[in-house]
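WARN no homologs supplied; continuing
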Amino acid sequence: MNIRSISIAFAVAMAVTACDTNKKALNDEKPVNDHEIVSEYVAPTRIVLTKGDVANAEHLLEPYSGQVAVGEPSTTLFSPHSSILLDFGEELQGGIEITRAISDNHRAARFRLCLGESVSEALSNIDAKETTATNDHSVRDLEISVPWLGSMQIGNSGFRFARLDLLDDDMQVPIVAVRAISRYRDIPQTGAFKCSDERLNTIWQTGARTVHLCMQDYLWDGIKRDRLVWLGDMHPEVMTVNTVFGNHEVVRKSLDYARNITPPTEWMNGICSYSLWWIIIHHHLYEWYAGRDYLAQQHDYLASLVHTVIDNIKDGRESYSSGRFIDWPSADLPDVIHAGLQALTHRALAAAEDIARWLGDDALRDECHSALEQVSGHVPSHTNNGQAAALLALEGMIDAEEAAKVITDGGPEKFTSFMGYYLLEALAAAGRYDDALQLISTYWGRMIDLGATTFWEDFNYADSRNAARIDEVVPEGKFDIHADGGAYCYVGLRHSFCHGWASGPTAWLSRHVLGIEPLDIGFRKVRINPHLGGLSWAEGALPTPYGIIKVRHTKRADGTIESKVELPRGVKRVK
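OK structure emitted
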């Protein structure tokens, strides 16, 4: 067993221990249960195009029993060097099954399979001299052999489209079915959101689906590229998991995995802010679920990590010497990075102070408090950058209205998939709910306009103005948002179109439109404070340790709001 395997095994053991020691706790932590990951066959919904002679192609859209027979009544016949591009209707995580019928030639048929999150990616050639298509993290472009009178299952990636090319030049191949194998956690969606704006409803559900697909063995960043546990990226994902699925073990399993492979004197994922996010996420988990036994397991590591953070504070300024990162669009802006890291250091120290108090560690609490006072005394300029302004405003280091002006002046062109969540939170802090709703509809809604069924790693709104949809062959004169867009680590077709960090609107809409605000640890007390903006009604549900909170808000003619609220036993509403 290698070191990585040992770390994973230890993480699993730690999660199981957490369950055993906390069976009677309010949030009764569940054991690690990867058996809830299931596979489901999905038929294609559309033929995008064919090349060469593919006879009876529409047959592939018909239902298939899953059992090939000697006397198949209908097949799709591939002639030499023919090709078909199939659309499965929405982004999936998994692979492909190809079933071949009987024929005179018993030799295995050679096909090329190319999966894509867009039509452009599925039509790409990874062997081309100049291409941004890759097999990084998951092989999505490969040659396969399909047996005579049998099936072949292959692939493990994120995709919506599949291109199948017959490579043989001396045989015709009858194909019975081409099905996607969708792999996901079969868990109930206990959170819900609906309102009078159907576009916002679609955005909420798209964010929920994005994170659901990323809830694989661990909580991944993406399902095609970045099938990894990235701690900073996890924060918006965790807020969405809390909102949609409630207390799920994949979050704790992923947090523990990062802890177990990273000494507290080093930065998680090699990025200083990601260790800060680890502290912040633990604070959120305890606020939501009151899992003291699990929090206590983090005590020693947390204390050591806090000392590492404090060692990197000089005269009240963060002074991390490595791994300086906030998000990709600010990666070349050192002043923005400093402002963001100063704010995140403030948030992590405040979170650690609370955690130390909850665990009864007075010495650690005092250390955090002293460091927090130092950090509070240095407020960097936001340099008119929305990300920096938002993070500073959320810490009370600058006025929220000042941040809101920077954010709204920048508009959707300055939004990012990851930091967009915090821009929305800063607008809420300033009471600018209408502006936030409009930006959600404009920025995230534009991805849906372009054919997205999950939200993307990054999205440059300006590029979308003359962009073609991702589910069509790009017409001449239109911008290819996948092949020609992107930057940094996500250039062109390497760009992930299902990235959990982009799900922020799902958590934001439930929190601020439905207005369900926890006022005590574990939702023992809540305030219902809806902000409908221009909406005429909104309703939904939020999972808590005590059960589901359900609300419906209707705007009266005079602008006031009538609310119907159902609280589970144990939750007290505070006006």
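The two ends are 56 Å apart (CA to CA).
OK
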